[in-house]
Amino acid sequence: MGGKLIVFEGVEGCGKTSQMQFCCEWLQHLGISVVVTREPGGTELGLHLRRLLLEKVENKSISEVTELLLYAADRAQHVEQELKPNLAEGKYILCDRYTDSTTAYQGYGRGLNMSLINQLNYIATSGLESDLTIWLDVDVEVGLARKQGDGVGLDRIEQETIAFHRRVQQGYAELAASYPSRIVRVDGSLTQAAVQDIIQGILRDKLEL
Ligand code: Z5A
């Protein structure tokens, strides 16, 4: 596979979407062919699953294991339909969330069995890992305040308790410590321009751009 899979991770409001957009423009400017995608919702089937997973009121009763399986189903479809074909064509993929989200949210946040999560992540990806994962690290309160400031209302997972979001944050910290060559922490509390400068430096260095 000639392409690269670059994943952006972090708690709500950490700035993934904005930073991915800046990176996309920068990479295209360098003449690199880029695909921007996300989980959940990177395929047509995934869009249906995203609605089921994130709508605010209707799905409050979704069970934790059902939630885990729906994220895995979204990912399996995404890997086969989007990620593998685009990597095979040599494209750079910027992906908003991937397997570390499941570990952080369903593993650390919900407390589901880690070995089950690792197995499901493997089944859904058939072992496809990111070439690089940028973890945008911001305090949970800062991220949620940014989202509330957007005025679009909080989705089903954003409405979880602060304690839940703190466990998710702890999950990202432990993942970054466990996989230092794959996951790079970036201080997401800096200005958007400063964050983008740091990310471009990391991409230049790690991907030899
Ligand atoms: N989830 C899961 O549980 N398990 C899984 O396996 C997967 C996902 C794959 C998907 O939401 C949800 O699914 C997510 C985890 C769960 N939980 N929730 N909810 P998502 O990823 O689509 O949405 P999100 O996490 O809430 O992110 P977001 O809304 O896309 O926000 P963001 O991408 O991190 O940030 P942003 O849109 O770029 O910025 C948000 C606001 O902050 C906006 O007003 C910006 O202008 C502002 N901003 C951004 N950066 C800055 C800086 N540096 N300074 C000041 N203001 C800033």
Report on the architecture of this protein.
This protein has helices at residues 16-29, 44-54, 64-88, 99-109, 114-125, 140-150, 162-178, 192-207; strands at 4-9, 34-38, 92-96, 132-137, 183-187. With 209 residues, it is an alpha/beta fold. It has one domain: P-loop containing nucleotide triphosphate hydrolases (Rossmann fold, 3-Layer(aba) Sandwich), CATH 3.40.50.300. Helix 2 runs antiparallel to helix 3, helix 3 packs parallel to helix 5 and helix 4 (99-109) packs across helix 7 (162-178). The chain binds ligand Z5A.
Shape: globular
Number of domains: 1
Distance between the termini: 17 Å
- The secondary structure category is alpha/beta
The small-molecule ligands in this entry are: ligand Z5A
CATH class: Alpha Beta
What is the CATH fold-level name? Rossmann fold
Largest sheet: 5 strands, parallel
Question: Helical percent range?
Answer: 55-70%
Poorly predicted sequence stretches spanning 5 or more consecutive residues: none
Descriptive labels:
five-stranded parallel beta sheet; single chain; alpha/beta; 209 residues; binds ligand Z5A; Rossmann fold; 5 strands
What's the topology here?
Blueprint (H helix, E strand, L loop, with lengths): L3 E6 L6 H14 L4 E5 L5 H11 L9 H25 L3 E5 L2 H11 L4 H12 L6 E6 L2 H11 L11 H17 L4 E5 L4 H16 L2
Helix pairs in contact: 1-8, 2-3, 3-5, 4-5, 4-7
